[in-house]
Design a protein that fits this description.
- The protein has about 500 residues and is mainly alpha-helical.
- Helices cover about 60% and strands about 0% of the residues.
- It is built from 25 helices and four strands.
- The strands form two sheets. Strands 1-2 form a two-stranded antiparallel ribbon. A two-stranded antiparallel sheet has the order 3-4.
- The C terminus is likely disordered.
Amino acid sequence: AAATVLEVLSALIAEGGPLLDGRCHRQLACTFIMCTSVYAQILSHAVPSTVGVSLIACVLAFARRSLQVRECPSTSEGKDAAFPFTVKQDHIGVVCLLRLSCFCASDPALTSPDTRTALCSDVRLHVAAAVAHSEAITLQAHSTVVLAEAVACLAKHHADTAHEVLAICFELACDGRAGSASVALCAAAEVVTKCGAAQGEAVASALVPVWQHLSDPRLDSQALAKFLSAVAEHAPAGALQTLAQLVAGLFKNQPNTRVPLLKVATSFAHRVGREGGPLVPLGAELIGGLSALVWEEVDRSGAALQRLHLVMDSKVRSECEVPEVTQADRALMEAWSDLTREAAKHAPAALVASSVGLVPVLSAATSLVALPMQNPPTCSLALLSHEWKEDHLRVILYSALNSTIAGSDMTPGAPWALGTVVLRAVMKALLGQMPPNALGVLVPAARAIVQNVPTLAETWIRSALAGDGFPSANTKPEAKERFVRELVDTVGDNQKFKQALKKVCGGKKKSP
């Protein structure tokens, strides 16, 4: 069967065959390229043509020529507009090149220096067209990035090609039209991802002249973050000190980049977790520095503390009764929570060594949960729900949750432990400040507090239930004590704890 397939494919692409006829329809070309992509793993077994040209060489040449076919034809092209030149969402030609680079990289047709130079030229042509928004563009942005990925898969076997294709992407990203350079940065990210380990020296060499240009404020923050995340995960370790300095500088001087840059720091934490060693103090310094800046921003004028004070009375509020948190602040706190949770999972040593500690990030996460909202802050709740397995992490968690928050003029009395505030915020959310379908993300946060710090859990639960009229106007002191016991006793069983917490917060829900 394989021999028959190869024979048919060879006949179609042969000189004088239907594909090389100037009248070949785009649908036939697209179908052929799709078939060769599917059978890329067996193309090397095909018998060469009568003039000694391999099937892989023929398919490679045809796929490269197909890049000049517009991916999405305009309606002005008449009946041809009904035949997009794609498979799923990407240009079929770049998909074919990707498959050839993955499965036929050792074939002479692909190892040839001329072929590799030609493919780099293809990347330059199409990335440049994307950057310039050329009217002659044939590839959509996502297909252009896949083209770079295809060449990178081949380049990981050839240092000179890895350096060349990465230098091309950098050159186009850092030209005078930096604001349109997102495609070039995303293409560079794919090259670093594919070549960082196999051709580390070439990647590091290509990075040296570009660092100074990456602080250009015109660069798209999302594309820049994608590229820097690839560097954090895959570039040689020697580049990470410069990366950390760049991220810290951007974070401080360009506030609008902070959410995507926290994702870069998350990738950095993953790398620290894999390799450890000298990267641990570097990771700790980066996490600590970014965390300090985030806390300074989200708690400006005591905003986070004001939100925490909202849980200290007995009132269950609606969204119109509380100060609004901006979407930018919410996104920043969510990204910060995600960074902290990922660091706890993958780089606990760096998190422990961080200068800021856990109090600010846990306070920020809790301050979001304290607000009435229809869309729960999932990343903040995920952080509060995290199971802290490492003993040294449990020590700093204990200290953080046991830190106290003073009351305000509206909530006089003894300071509240942060652990109590978390539990109270979850209870208020279940009482109606968040919709009923938030139960699945709220209960784990309360249960994690009880599980992670069992020695103080009973005290915190009792304090969280304190106050006249809470959790409901007719809740008696003896009922509250019974609730405390049930929550402590059922913490080992998720379903029973959930039912016990629902019983505590069984009051009538407020309407959205």
